[in-house]
């Protein structure tokens, strides 16, 4: 971990639970589309990996995103982190994500940059993220076991080819772990999100955590499944609070656990306990400011 990352860790409300009382995050909804299909996801909604489903986000172009960043940072000084977390996958269309991150970094050398992804396309961009000092990356890994993954993922789109079944999960998990390995070699902080899907991956989560510890993952965030109507996993009930607690305890033997995630939308802004969206805070004023 380089000095700048250590310093930034003090101000990151997700990677550092104490910081959440004083520092907020700004999510920019610029990432459209996805390169995989999770069984709990309906693309009408935000990515459930890092978002609360049920509300469709407004997508921003890179220029709109930059305009919003300027407005929010000027008017809300508690914002310490700008991140991209959906509504689809940040590296489905990497050009957009990287353009936005690069432009923010050029204008704001000290802001913390953060990105969240399923990891499939991540290995190719680790060098560039490191150069931009995007020091915090979240990868969603629901399992590392192909037989379980085939019950979670319908397909992946890899090098222009749709792949299904165990081969898809094997490719996905290989690239996720490769990306984490590269990120850690560069000194970035890595959080893994894992959606708890009762009866499918719950018994496998401590095994996942044990393997992630070998890769020096910094933090693990077990997220209870939110069943989304119309999806293949819609009939699976969310895990009980007791199961979530038990799984965190088991996984915590291997990787420190995040327990304060509030499952933000892809356009969330402010302190984690505030329920604001980017558009709540900018709507009237941006219309005036940006014409
Ligand atoms: Fe949906 Fe996110 Fe999975 Fe993509 S990675 S299918 S957007 S839940
Ligand atoms: Fe932080 Fe969780 Fe919100 Fe992501 S979804 S910004 S990890 S609180």
UniProtKB/TrEMBL annotation:
Gene Ontology molecular function: 4 iron, 4 sulfur cluster binding; lyase activity; metal ion binding
Keyword set, alphabetical order: 4Fe-4S, Iron, Iron-sulfur, Lyase, Metal-binding, Nitrogen fixation, S-adenosyl-L-methionine
Cofactor names: [4Fe-4S] cluster
Family annotation (InterPro entries): Aldolase_TIM, Elp3/MiaA/NifB-like_rSAM, MoaA_NifB_PqqE_Fe-S-bd_CS, rSAM, rSAM_sf
Record keyword S-adenosyl-L-methionine present: yes
Keyword 4Fe-4S included in the entry's annotation: yes
SUPFAM superfamilies: Radical SAM enzymes
Xref: Pfam families: Radical_SAM
Pathway: Cofactor biosynthesis; Fe-Mo cofactor biosynthesis
Domain Radical SAM core: 20-265
PROSITE patterns per record: MOAA_NIFB_PQQE, RADICAL_SAM
CDD domains in the cross-refs: Radical_SAM (cd01335)
Gene Ontology biological process terms in this record: molybdopterin cofactor biosynthetic process
PANTHER family assigned to the protein according to its UniProt record, in alphabetical order: FEMO COFACTOR BIOSYNTHESIS PROTEIN NIFB, FEMO COFACTOR BIOSYNTHESIS PROTEIN NIFB-RELATED
Family, similarity comment: Belongs to the radical SAM superfamily. NifB family.
Role, per record: Involved in the biosynthesis of the iron-molybdenum cofactor (FeMo-co or M-cluster) found in the dinitrogenase enzyme of the nitrogenase complex in nitrogen-fixing microorganisms. NifB catalyzes the crucial step of radical SAM-dependent carbide insertion that occurs concomitant with the insertion of a 9th sulfur and the rearrangement/coupling of two [4Fe-4S] clusters into a [8Fe-9S-C] cluster, the precursor to the M-cluster.
Name of the protein: FeMo cofactor biosynthesis protein NifB
């Amino acid at each position: 971990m380089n000095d700048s990352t250590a310093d930034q860790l003090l101000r990151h409300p997700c990677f550092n639970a104490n910081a959440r009382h004083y520092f907020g995050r700004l999510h920019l909804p610029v990432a459209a589309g996805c390169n995989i299909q999770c069984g709990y996801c309906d693309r009408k909604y935000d990515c459930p990996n890092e978002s609360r489903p049920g509300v469709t986000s407004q997508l921003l172009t890179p220029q709109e995103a930059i305009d919003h960043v300027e407005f929010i940072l000027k008017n809300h000084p508690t914002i310490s982190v700008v991140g991209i977390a959906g509504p689809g996958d940040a590296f489905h269309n990497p050009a957009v994500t990287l353009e936005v991150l690069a432009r923010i970094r050029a204008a704001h050398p000290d802001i913390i940059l953060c990105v969240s992804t399923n990891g499939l396309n991540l290995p190719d961009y680790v060098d560039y993220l490191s150069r931009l000092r995007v020091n915090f990356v979240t990868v969603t890994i629901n399992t590392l076991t192909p037989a379980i993954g085939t019950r979670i993922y319908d397909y992946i789109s890899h090098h222009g080819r749709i792949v299904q079944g165990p081969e898809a999960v094997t490719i996905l998990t290989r690239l996720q772990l490769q990306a984490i390995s590269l990120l850690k070699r560069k000194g970035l902080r890595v959080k893994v999100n894992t959606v708890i899907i009762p009866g499918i991956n719950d018994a496998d989560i401590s095994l996942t955590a044990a393997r992630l510890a070998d890769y020096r993952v910094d933090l693990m965030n077990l997220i209870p499944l939110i069943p989304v109507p119309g999806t293949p996993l819609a009939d699976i009930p969310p895990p009980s609070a007791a199961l979530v607690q038990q799984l965190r305890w088991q996984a915590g033997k291997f990787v420190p656990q995040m327990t304060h995630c509030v499952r933000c939308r892809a356009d969330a802004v402010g302190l984690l306990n505030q329920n604001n969206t980017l558009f709540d805070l900018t709507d009237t004023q941006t219309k005036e400011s940006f014409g």
